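Reading a protein record of the kind used here takes little practice once its layout is understood. An example of such a record is reproduced below.
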Amino acid sequence: MRKVSIKFINSRLYYSRRYLSRNQFYSFFSCNKNEQRPIKSKNDDFLIDESYNNVEFDEYISPSFSFDINIDDDKWKKKEEIEYNKFIEKTKKDSINPSTFFNTQKMTKHIKNTSGNSNYEKLQIHNKHIDNNISSNVVTSNNSTPHNVETFYEKENIYEDDINIFLKNSSDDITLQDGGIIKKLIYLDSNYKSLHYENKKIGAYLNSILDLLERGSTDTHKDENGKNGKNGKNEKNEENEENGKNEQNEEDKVDKEYEADILYKDNKERTETPNERVGGGHIQYLQGHIFNNIYEDPFSLNNLKYQKLVTNFTKFAGYYTNTFFKLIVENIQSLTYNNLVFTLNLLDHLNMKNMMRDLSYEVIKMLNKKKKSDQQDILQNANINKKENKKINDIENNIKLCVHYINILNFHSLYFCEFYDYLIEYINNMKNDVLCFFTLQCFTHSLRTKHYLDKIYFLCLKKIHEFNYEELKCMIYCFHRFCKEYSKFYDLSIDIIKNKYIHLLNMNLNFVQLLLKITNAFNKNDKYVELKGLIAEKIIMRVGNIQREEKKKKGQYLNNSTNVNTSVDMWTNVERHKKKESSSRMCAPYDTTYLGANSCVSKVFMENSVHNTIYEDNIIKIIQCLKYLEYNKKNSEHVKTCVNKIYEMINENMECLEKLDIEDIVYSIVCFSTYNKRLILYNNFLDIIYEKSNELMNAKNICLWIYPILSLCKISWYHRNYIELLFGYIKDNYILNRLSVFQVLKLLSSIVKMNIYDEEVYKILIEKLYKEWDIIKKKLIDISTFLWCCAYINIIYKPLFDSAYNLIIDLINKDNVPIINNVMYKNCFVNITWSFIVANYHKTHTNFDQILNITFLKRNPNENEAFKRLHQISDSCFKEIPKTLINITCLDTLYAYCTHEKCKLLRNNFIIYKKEKDAVKMKNKIHDELINLLKNSFHISFDQYVEPYHNSPYIIDICLNQTSKIGVSIFGKEYLMRTLKKSSWDFMNTGIVTLQMRILHAHGWKIIPINAGEWLQLNFDQKKNLLSEYFKQYSIQI
């Protein structure tokens, strides 16, 4: 059994022996590879090979339709007949295109070359006659007489006549229920091409058909059911008789209509303009809003008018739809202006993206050709004025056409630079509304079309005073992505807004967000700072109005709730009565009291839900403004007041936080932290971030997940769930690799400033940063930050410290004066020197005196800047490397820091006391507990707050024996770090503690360290036992 193509069967059925030679047959079908090409004989013309053995598909034959036959076995003959009958039924319904079964180009190539043009044309007409016979179920057998080709040749204009008659009689529209006229148009075009009638084109027919299609898609159709009674009855009888036969067809029809409806809905949703989210997703500005308020496109569509047409196009085979639109593309120059627009609209609704691309390419090519020909005609024509007037009208129409095309193409993410090149030449001919709309289309492609925005920018500087408020908003929106490059335009537009339109800002919060974003870009300019203050005043008024409206609504809600309660009481009473008399109410009408109570309840709740939606939307838009209201020294008091008002509004409407985007949550944290506000509200924000962790990780801003920790470290706000989430992201190599080296460095320093210790996390970050050492070493501030982080957490990564030490020595030897004199770089050297001392590099490496000379160069101990850190450096150097100080040029400065009395005031002054207000209380509590234990349990004498040596940067909290130098040091939050497992301050092995213990040990002191975090977790007996062990270790008699 072999698979045989339907084409082969068709050839067996329709082709006569005398019209197909064996040689031509061989070129159409392929047999065995070993079979020799038959030699053509004069007496064997037009013989068909009867052998079906070893049949193979030809590469030119589409195997889309095939069925199984076996000539030698009678078992398959019935199946062959059944499938053949099915094939004939399909040809009746025109569901199979006959032209797909014949590849006449290859089959007739030999005839055209050998038999002359007349035989070739007759064979093509014969093929056309075969197509007609298939559709009318006329089949000729192999033994039938040859067809009268000459008779059919005289009827070659049959399609033209049918189309002309149809267009003449169809005054209304085309329903396209069966697509008959489209099919005839396609057949006519194929005949023109096959008969080489190049002078005959179907452009005129296309225009007429498209006009009828457009009319049918916009006009209201009459109800076809309103017919005479007899006709209606006859139709019903016929439908009843054929109901059984067409049941399956009806189901298929319903399925197709459903698919068309879905397609229509999808197109509707696609063509509706979405919210344009700009600047990290916070300026929500509707392009549709601009579209409606700025420029009314004369070709804008209503989807409801195209629903029937789109549905009809989906009913017949895609082959006809594609071929029909290909004909339009091929005959683009013959189409009218309106039909070019209608065709694109139709393709848009059918979602035929590839065909839209081909059509747009041909349209812009045609427009460019016309532009060149018009220029030549004006030069050659004597009456130039008339030509120029006509050209101006054509340019206006072409501008509208091109603007409409790029608008539709942008919906499908298609970009044709030729349209923009064409339009940019005529921007001076555009009216303000068209210019704004074209600028908006250029904005959507960002950098790809920035060179067009540059040309529009210079034109806008001249015409800025001609724009109305909506047009000015549109231009401000379109240029804001590159606002610093278009600063002159914004200087002029801001003046216009402050003088003419400032009262309108309270109406549109989207535009307010856009202006705030622009003011942040020019935050050093007093003009924009003033504008931010004016905007803040408007937001304060808006917040006040919302709060007043909410109070009114609450009062109304209380009144309505009493009505609802009475209605509910009536409702429940009716329900009880209904249960008692259920049998009698089966026949009785509905109780109006019951219905009235029910409707009253639903009405009240409907009104409240609508109000709540509008109310929440306004609150969300105001909260989104926080992103642009961060602290700035130049900001007016109105900005700070505005932030406080928004904070109050959030506290009153906590339910709105759940509806905020993840970006809004993050930037709210960033804004409040810049004002050093320690708010319980942070916990609400961070809880939402933890719940929306997937949104945080997949946000458009790929580094958004580190923003909260960068802000929280400023106020030392700890949230365990967020920190766990953060550490999980750091351990994920894929997520961490999204960050740049500078972002990773900021992340490391922020975690260190948060005083959270996780050795695994720190090692991951340090190793990743050191891989980018070639980038970090270019900036001294990055080197100092990196070294300080490692020294603070007491993780001395030797490759890093070795590379940094050699780099600093080389830098000093080059005598780089700008680096030495720069104040910021001087503070960097303080951190670098302190880090090397913590790592003991001052004792193990040479040339450390050079680093000390740079660190203390032009330093004054009377200044408070970095005094505490410089005092620690000089103190450790005098004790640990006294011989090295001989070669130091700034020895007097070091000695002045060591002996200065200011150290006694600053030794207990820690920054963390401002962030952690309970740090001092915790240390005092432990201090009191130790005194009570020593007095009551151990009966040991002691001294409090003893200076271990003169002008020491450290203090001994409890001195047990000053002669033996035994003391107790309490290490509270100012020295400790949190651990994530216990969320308590219990990690003591930090760089500060290590340095202090080392220096005190060098001075001969034996220190009993008290870890404040661990001490608070012990009970009385455990605390007592801990002290006993230390006393035994240092031989203290109890």
